Amino acid sequence: MKTKRILKIMHTLAWIAFIGLSIKAGAIIISYFVSLGNENAAKDLYESMNYFAYKQNSLAHYSILVLYRVLQFSLQAYIAYLVIKLLSNLNIQRPFNAGALKSMQTISYSLILLWGVVVVHNIHIGLLQASTGIEAELLSSEFVLFAGIVYVFSLLFKRGIELQSENDLMI
Amino acid sequence: MKDNVTILTVITYAVLLSAVSILINDIREFDFQQFKEFQNWTKVANKNEPWFASKNAIEWSYYAISAGLFFWRGYLIFGFSYFLSILNEVKKGNYFSEKNIKYFKKIGNIFIAYTINVLVLRFILASIGKSTFNFFSEFKTEFTLLIPCALAFYLLAEIFERAKETEEENDLTI
Question: In tens digits, what is the pLDDT along chain B, a chain of 174 residues?
């Protein structure tokens, strides 16, 4: 009963995260196109995301930086979607199944890809700081640990599937 | 499997060490920047005033709460260190052991306890006028990562319990 409730709460949270992150990515795309016609829009792309200095410096760099952020939030939304899928497939009586394993592996690879995007973003704005003096605001990248954790859990899930199928064969 | 676990153990150690060093640095900065101010205040404070009256209580509670916040951050790092124990068990081949189930529950409990206590302490700190507190933004920051993680660990504990039962059934059948 308690586990079912936890599953329901997690499912709801995953949906909230998915919708919130999708809106965030969409809002940045719209703000970006608005900022092409209106200089001031770059000052507050989304929740005080200020890329005005980058836009004034170079439109190409500004566009690439916005692309990183859109990619970041889109990937996060995709991971939230994968979590929704994983939780929908999860049967607590028989938790180990191929669908859940595949979702876990995809989540782990997506987290590594997300980490890659964040690292490239940080290197890019670091280089821009060195060349133009625009103060760099680095994004945190500790979640690479989560990628590793999810991957190891997926390997444990694999072992769980083997155990479960051995058990089924015996029955 | 063993290689992946070893890599993850190294990453976990790196994250834990950096978290500890950041915490120590924050404590040191807090000590340097604010303790002098506190010492100066104690020299001029009115000793005849009852302790719990206004400024005395406010100054002391500020330091007590700050110490509390540092304690909870340390406790969260301690919670993360259970990952190392889990990885150690996995390395030994005890994938679905009783210990791992216990550790998952412990990590979940620590994450929840940290979130609740830090929120309460920050609220009190804001109410004595030493910091700004926006409940929604604070809650959003903690909520987006730690609470879902805590729930995930409770869920994993349950799943691992099932796996342990299956493993035991399998062993009995053999």
Answer: 677 788 888 888 888 899 899 999 888 887 666 667 767 777 776 666 665 556 666 667 777 888 888 999 999 999 989 988 988 888 888 888 888 899 999 999 998 899 889 888 888 877 766 666 666 666 666 666 788 888 888 888 888 888 888 878 777 775
**Model ipTM value:** 0.76
Find the domain containing A164 and state its range: 2-170
Q: How far is CA B146 from CA A85, B54, B152, in A?
A: 21, 35, 10
pTM value > 0.90? no
Q: Is residue A145 less than 8 Å (CB to CB) from chain B?
A: yes
Number of folded domains that form chain A: 1
Distance CA B128, CA B134 (A): 14
**Residue of chain A with shortest Cα separation from B160:** A160
Residue with tokens 């009115």: B46
Are the beta carbons of A92 and B162 separated by less than 8 Å?
yes
Closest chain B residue to A95, measured at CA:
B159
Residue A72: which of A116, A109, A136 has the closest Cα? A116
Contact B169 A167 (CB under 8 A): yes
Residue A77 CB partners (closer than 8 Å, separation 6+) = A17, A18, A21, A22, A24, A25
Rounded CA-CA distance A65/A81 in Å is 24
Q: What is the distance between the alpha carbons of residues B11 and B101, in angstroms, rounded to a whole number?
A: 22
Contact present, B35 and B14 (Cβ < 8 Å): no
Q: Residue A41 corresponds to which tokens in the numbers above? A: 């829009």
